[in-house]
Write a structure and sequence with these properties.
Elements: H1 17-27, H2 37-52, H3 61-74, H4 92-105, H5 110-130, H6 140-168, H7 171-174, H8 177-193, H9 195-200, E1 202-205, E2 211-215, H10 216-248, H11 252-255, H12 261-281, E3 287-291, H13 292-298, H14 300-310, E4 317-321
Antiparallel strand pairs: 1-2, 3-4
Length: about 325
């Protein structure tokens, strides 16, 4: 009998960057966004059946692998609930290329900067909320405060940079206003959308998956890594594309097709994101770890709970889902 697929484990080694890159290239495939709801539900059913060893007779490994791909692309790893399609990581390429391309194209006037930063941070807020650690519920009031604060910080940063650079920098440097605003806003948006994790901690488990404690320090580490990943995700497109467009716009043929500059930038950003989404997601392990001695040093109260639960068998490392 052939060896059964480990349905809850990635197909590639997650201890290496290459393995994580392959995994997220597979999971964030944009084609998963256009799969019907019925197909997604059937994929979840097949995964659950296979997990119990009760899949329909004649089910092939290829069918199980495809169901696993759809399941992991559309359902939250903590709660198992179906995610909003616009908040899924598989929507990052089409969604990100449209919004980022627009920000890079329409940055010359204050109203355009404000509008596209608002659109971008609204999109980011939805993605951050959708991919949060689902074991830390957030109230409606907290969500509203987080959303307003994040979008406000992006707009203020963008307008501040634009005002400062308009007087002191060349038109080329002004093209980097969108990236400065996006980078700054990420440090506000992600922690605010996941503030409950910072306030109450997130579940940490031992090597066998048994929950042993809740740690705010783990939340800090996970959120920081996600923030860095998000900035890395958009950086190449927002830093390199302005240089390319600056050069291209010097040519007469490019000047004659100004109406196409926006679509050109959108497609170019899409090319960058196709590689940068799995690259950024794979920078850090999804199942993040932390030494229990660190909890003992910085969270003594939580360490006492850990010690009470585990007795003398305190694990050297605890593990948690960092989110995406």
């Amino acid at each position: 009998m052939p060896e059964r697929l480990k349905i809850d484990e990635p197909l590639w080694d997650q201890s290496t960057f290459v393995g994580r890159f392959k995994h997220f290239l597979w999971v964030t495939d944009p084609r998963s966004c256009v799969v019907s709801e019925e197909t997604l539900d059937n994929a979840k059913i097949l995964v659950e059946q296979y997990r119990k060893g009760k899949e329909p007779p004649g089910t092939s490994v290829e069918q199980v692998i495809y169901a696993k791909k759809l399941y992991e692309s559309a359902f939250h790893p903590d709660s198992g609930e179906k995610q909003n399609v616009f908040g899924r990581m598989s929507f990052q390429v089409p969604g990100g290329m449209a919004v980022t391309g627009a920000m890079l194209q329409w940055y010359r006037t204050a109203p355009a900067v404000v509008f596209w930063q608002w659109v971008n941070q609204s999109f980011n807020a939805l993605v951050n909320y959708t991919n949060r650690n689902a074991n830390s519920p957030t109230t409606t009031k907290q969500l509203v405060v987080a959303y307003v604060s994040a979008t406000g910080s992006a707009m203020i940063t963008a307008l501040g940079c634009k005002s400062y650079w308009t007087k002191r920098a060349s038109p080329f440097v002004q093209r980097y206003v969108p990236f400065a605003a996006v980078a700054a806003a990420n440090f506000v948006n992600i922690p605010l959308m996941r503030q409950n994790e910072l306030l109450h901690g997130i579940d940490c488990s031992d090597a066998n998956g048994n929950i042993v404690c809740q740690s705010r320090l783990a939340a800090v580490k996970g959120i920081f890594q996600v923030t860095i990943s998000r900035i890395v995700m958009c950086a190449p497109g927002m830093l390199i594309l302005p240089v390319i467009m600056e050069r291209l716009e010097r040519y007469r043929w490019m000047q004659r097709i100004k109406v196409l500059h926006g679509p050109i930038q959108v497609l170019a950003v899409g090319c960058f994101l196709s590689f940068m989404v799995p690259t950024a997601c794979g920078l850090f392990p999804q199942r993040c770890s932390m030494k229990s001695s660190t909890i003992e040093w910085l969270e003594p109260e939580e360490y006492k709970k850990l010690k009470t639960k585990c007795g003398s068998n305190i694990p050297e490392l605890v593990y948690f889902n960092k989110g995406l």
